């Protein structure tokens, strides 16, 4: 039995592609591409993305058992704590709930599995993020092809109905836009920067076609974060010049006839807050839901009302709060809120601690933390599968930096990438 186990381990550790990617990692990245692409394409048919993600998770389990082993650290403890608190809160309010949903617990398992699989190798995390970007690029091309008639005729309203919720699609496009901006700023080759600048324009165009205000806000603030980290205080004038150019382009594009829907939505939002004649129904509804979620939170501040608590108990409306902060507070209370955001705190702290070590990729990880913080004000990421992909990538990169092995993958593998003799326990506890 031991020989069979060792044989399987050696087979799964065989290197391909010039000895940089193992077979199991290559399969994982391929499955990740298919899984992530299936989420926006078949979002309305939940069985398809769940099947794809299920296959991906099976690959992760095989990789962890036979190749990597799993580690227990601060990030994984908080992830498990969040899932347990969610379960306890839901069971506590089970009599008042309409049903018991397994989705949040499945998503917690996915996050834990992806995190532990990616944590061993920072290069794998980088490839994983690139694969997500590549899948989003494929979706953007499909998006443009599907709505080519509307785009060519310049009759652009809010495109994207065929692929589900427009705000969720904008979440993908803004993620890819931030990644493209990072490559433009940090690539040492001018050609690569130009290519990613073209892709950034494509993603910005698709986001505008979605008509999402959150897309503009998240993309703009994330790019500001990238510029500030990239150029710092000494070259503040570069940051200011780039932002001035981007803002000018945004105003010009906003007043193009093709984007009249986006312009109307922004003017309605402005009118809503300054007391104009126009009323932004979207913003008004969100504020009502936030008010009700605050009232619910005050009724059960410690453990909340369990998953789907707002939908069951809110006096106004239905569904979600459309704000992840208040959705978490309403669902699992202040205790769950702490466990949910603790890994993000550790990630930001890791960036601050490692800021001077010359790792430019940490600036992208830090920017994605800000990116998610912004989107949490507009979408309940508690229930969106995109979070299952991006969050573990952020946590794993920061977790590997905080490891006592100094981001090394040699604990279970030797220099020849072959599996070494494992310790008596097939898990490892990191401080």
Short description:
By secondary structure, the protein is mainly alpha-helical.
Could you please describe the fold and organization of this structure?
By secondary structure, the chain is mostly helical. It has 2 domains: 1-69; 74-409, no CATH class. The chain has helices at residues 2-12, 23-41, 47-68, 74-92, 103-118, 122-146, 148-152, 166-186, 190-210, 213-231, 236-254, 260-274, 281-299, 309-313, 324-354, 361-375, 386-402, and strands at residues 15-16, 21-22, 70-72, 427-429. The strands form 2 sheets. A two-stranded antiparallel sheet has the order 1-2. The protein is globular. Residues 14-20 and 404-431 have low confidence and may be disordered.
Largest sheet: 2 strands, antiparallel
Strand content: under 5%
Mean pLDDT: 80
Strand order within the widest beta sheet: 1-2
What shape does the CA trace take? globular
> Which percent bin holds the helix content?
55-70%
By helix and strand content, what is the structural category? mainly alpha
How are helices and strands ordered from N to C?
A: HEEHHEHHHHHHHHHHHHHHE
Number of domains: 2
Low-confidence stretches: 14-20, 404-431
SSE layout and pairings?
Elements: H1 2-12, E1 15-16, E2 21-22, H2 23-41, H3 47-68, E3 70-72, H4 74-92, H5 103-118, H6 122-146, H7 148-152, H8 166-186, H9 190-210, H10 213-231, H11 236-254, H12 260-274, H13 281-299, H14 309-313, H15 324-354, H16 361-375, H17 386-402, E4 427-429
Parallel strand pairs: 3-4
Antiparallel strand pairs: 1-2
Helix pairs in contact: 2-3, 2-6, 3-5, 4-5, 4-15, 5-17, 6-8, 6-9, 6-17, 8-9, 8-10, 8-16, 10-11, 10-16, 13-15, 15-16, 15-17, 16-17
